[in-house]
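About this split. The held-out portion is used to measure sequence recovery: a designer receives only the structure tokens and must propose an amino acid at every position. Recovery is the fraction of positions where the proposal matches the reference. Here is one held-out target exactly as it appears in the evaluation file.
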């Protein structure tokens, strides 16, 4: 019902006078760009006392993934936009994207049977309701076409989206095309945000912006099963609710500081680790999380995400995240708590203005019930070595991205994964990657 009432509210807001500002909006009315991201990863042999059906392979291997996206948008009026993205994903990840909770390539689709046929990744209406007459310059992008935005405003988005296009953003660690590649570096790993196998969902997002802070809420559809491609449209029994507050405190003079505080609550047909473990103890067999699934189970969690400009092209960032870990990992990955810290440096110091280098350290963990489930031989949709000698999964990632020409860049990336899948009996795995990124298109029809 919330989606219905909010959609009706959006239609009503569209009738409001558009006000002043952004007088040149008709020249910035269109957006049409294309991007392609190709990632080749490989690792050498690493020690493993045993392996299971969902293990990271201990023998050397390599894999190549690709993802192409066509971004399009049209400003129907100054404050109303229609956005449509088409996408194709192909190739695969090392070990079929299994065996590490912080997997090494966020571009990989976890179900290779979906094929490479193009699909609609995003389709939405985006409406901005001005709440002040003061407009500020904005950077146009595929998710927001306006070059000027009211300083105080409400924004509504309704349609097919990626939740992490708007929540848990970070200018240093949120972009797999030009930045980090590891799942738990690009996002808060404990944020089990609503999404299908490809990472998309349908929903409503409402954002309030004012000088120095922002608030956002999202109501989104959950998959019918863990890591499933089909979404549950009955939001009375299954849905994801997301709340985030964003602050811009003045901690360092003339240096940008951003802090985001996130809370999420998911309801879905989830299995319980404790119930499943008890079932296995009674039967003497291996636990299977699908046998304890029950509609309406809840998972909650929070995150804190911060970034700090330090000057001389240096920007530091960090995340901490936690989810209760009682019920099964359902939509993102098998991480119940995480901490990340890192920094990036622009190439200005060596006269490569558009180049960047960065590094981050991530530590991931799981709940007691979750680790007992894996120790007893259980499998999730990412992990399952057939046993477990628990240790925190610790990941170091560093990369250098070089701008080659216009929209073409290349990157070299290295990741060291200690205790992959939280298992001290396996690893460390050292993964090297090469990435080629291309983007081009047009974003306006400005008169000369």
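Reference sequence for scoring:
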């Amino acid at each position: 019902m919330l989606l219905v009432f909010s959609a009706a509210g959006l239609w009503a807001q569209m009738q409001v006078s558009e006000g002043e500002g952004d007088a040149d909006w008709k020249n910035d009315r269109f957006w049409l760009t294309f991007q392609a991201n190709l990632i080749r990863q490989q690792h050498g042999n690493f020690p493993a006392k045993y392996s299971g059906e969902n293990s990271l392979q201990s023998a050397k291997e390599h894999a190549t993934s690709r993802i192409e996206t066509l971004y399009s948008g049209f400003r129907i009026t100054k404050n109303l936009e229609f956005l449509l993205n088409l996408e194709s994903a192909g190739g695969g990840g090392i070990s079929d994207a299994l065996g590490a909770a912080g997997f090494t390539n966020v571009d990989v689709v976890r179900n290779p049977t979906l094929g490479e046929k193009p699909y609609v990744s995003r389709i939405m209406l985006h409406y901005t309701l001005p709440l002040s007459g003061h407009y500020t310059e904005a950077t146009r992008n595929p998710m927001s076409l306006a070059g000027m935005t009211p300083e105080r405003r409400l924004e509504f988005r309704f349609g097919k989206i990626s939740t992490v296009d708007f929540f848990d953003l970070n200018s240093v660690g949120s972009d797999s095309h030009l930045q980090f590649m590891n799942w738990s570096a690009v996002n808060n790993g404990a944020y089990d945000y609503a999404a299908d196998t490809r990472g998309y969902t349908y929903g409503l997002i409402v954002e309030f912006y004012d000088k120095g802070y922002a608030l956002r809420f999202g109501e989104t559809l959950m998959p019918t099963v863990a890591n499933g491609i089909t979404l549950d449209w009955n939001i009375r029994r299954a849905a994801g609710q997301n709340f985030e507050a964003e602050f811009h405190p003045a901690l360092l003079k003339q240096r940008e500081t951003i802090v985001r505080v996130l809370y999420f609550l998911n309801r879905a047909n989830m299995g319980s680790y404790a119930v499943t473990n008890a079932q296995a103890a009674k039967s003497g067999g291996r636990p299977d999380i699908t046998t304890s699934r029950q509609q309406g189970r809840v998972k909650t969690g929070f995150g804190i995400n911060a970034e700090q400009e330090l000057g001389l092209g240096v920007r530091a960032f960090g995340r901490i995240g936690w989810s209760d870990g009682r019920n099964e990992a359902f939509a993102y990955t098998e991480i119940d708590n995480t901490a990340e810290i890192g920094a990036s440096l622009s190439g200005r110091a060596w006269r490569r203005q558009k180049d960047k280098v960065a590094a981050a350290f991530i530590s991931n963990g799981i709940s007691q019930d979750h680790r007992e489930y894996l120790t007893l031989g259980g499998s999730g949709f990412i992990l399952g070595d057939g046993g477990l000698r628990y240790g925190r999964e610790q990941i170091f990632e560093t990369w250098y991205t070089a701008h080659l020409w216009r929209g073409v860049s290349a990157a070299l990336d290295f990741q060291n994964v200690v205790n992959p899948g939280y298992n001290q009996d396996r690893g460390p795995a050292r993964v090297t990657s090469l990435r080629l990124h291309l983007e081009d298109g047009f974003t306006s029809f400005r008169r000369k």
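Annotator remark: The first strand starts at residue 30 and ends at 43.
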